[in-house]
Specification:
There is one protein chain. The chain is globular. Helix 6 runs parallel beside helix 8. It has ten helices and four strands; from the N terminus they run E-H-E-E-E-H-H-H-H-H-H-H-H-H. The protein is mainly alpha-helical. The longest helix is centred in the first third of the chain and has 28 residues.
Length: 322
């Protein structure tokens, strides 16, 4: 019997099976296609087989870390949520997925990782309280830097800087994208009838965080909530395919307790905790030495001669604070 495919993804919050857009996309597609995955919901990307999330681990072909590659592999394994689509519907699905990635995704990255209020109050807070110590001290800021680089790459402007003009342009395109998605969905349950497809997975992955997260700067969120069909679309998928996630209470959204599938529950947990403490102490000691808070003092043995030939009196030298 073949070993099950293993999916590593960010753990959930706010009533979502995962807080990450790409993880949500892959989780939704796997549900739609009926893929039997063993899912590890974790809060430390370094524990995935690729060092990033999401990641699909296979026995024969190694590991994959991009949603498109993961979905292609699942299709090769006969888990194809697009099987019933006609040629025209398949082409439409690809066109709308491209639209979502080009117009909606950059605004979502900006809203969660660049907007100062949203980043500090929501994104950094969640990651800081869920990523294990001591990684939670530096991983969120490193992830923010990578997301900004990603945004610049998506926009084709390496000099792009956060600001009102950038925000207006990104949000304008995102609102137009949501309007087109709303028109395409109309009153249907899914984009191509009664069965969900890869397009439904991509749209859900990008819209569900906007719908469920408590964002201080909620311009995109307010527009989404004004569109009943898209809001109901996300809620229906959560109810039909992730019913247990909706039971999370608002007070649990920042819980730092690991999932039962997190590797922190392995027998090496105590060793990992000790190593984490040692790493943190080493980092703090290095910082103290580099900033001058702590200095290594040389004490001359009593009675020893100094460079002028005089006897030392056992005192030690200290650097001036300035």
């Amino acid at each position: 019997m073949a070993a099950p495919l293993e999916l590593f993804c960010w753990k959930g919050g706010w009533g979502l099976p995962s807080v990450d857009t790409e993880c949500l996309t892959v989780l939704a597609y796997a549900k739609f296609a009926g893929a039997p995955l063993k899912v590890h919901k974790i809060a430390n990307p370094w524990r995935s087989p690729t060092g990033s999330l999401p990641a699909l681990k296979t026995q024969e072909e190694g590991s994959f870390s991009q949603p498109s590659k993961i979905i292609i592999h699942l299709k090769k394994q006969k888990y194809n949520a697009d099987y019933d689509l006609s040629g025209k519907e398949g082409a439409d699905a690809l066109a709308f997925i491209s639209l979502v990635e080009e117009k909606l995704l950059p605004a979502l990255v900006y809203a969660l990782w660049v907007d100062p209020k949203n980043y500090v109050d929501v994104t950094r807070r969640w990651h800081g309280e869920n990523i294990p110590f001591p990684l939670n001290f530096f991983l969120p800021s490193r992830m923010q830097g990578r997301q900004l680089d990603r945004l610049r790459l998506m926009r084709g402007d390496l000099r792009l800087e956060p600001g009102d003009e950038t925000e207006k342009e990104l949000y304008r395109e995102a609102l137009e994208c949501m309007n087109l998605l709303s028109q395409r969905l109309a009153s249907h349950t899914f984009f191509f009838g009664d069965s969900p497809s890869s397009l439904d997975a991509f749209v859900f992955g990008h819209l569900a965080p906007l719908l469920k997260m408590k964002l201080p700067n909620a311009k995109l969120q307010q527009h989404l909530k004004s569109m009943d069909n898209l809001s109901n679309f996300c809620s229906n998928i959560l109810t039909l395919y992730f019913p247990s996630e909706g039971q999370d209470s608002p007070g649990r959204q920042f819980s730092s307790q690991p999932d039962s599938s997190d590797f922190d529950n392995e027998p090496h947990k105590r060793r990992n905790q000790v190593l984490s403490v040692l790493v943190a102490l080493g980092a703090m000691l290095s910082y103290a030495l580099l900033t001058g808070i702590l200095s290594i003092q040389h004490v001359r043995p009593q009675g020893a001669l100094d460079s002028s030939g005089r006897h030392g009196v056992g005192s030690h030298e200290e650097e001036d604070d300035d």
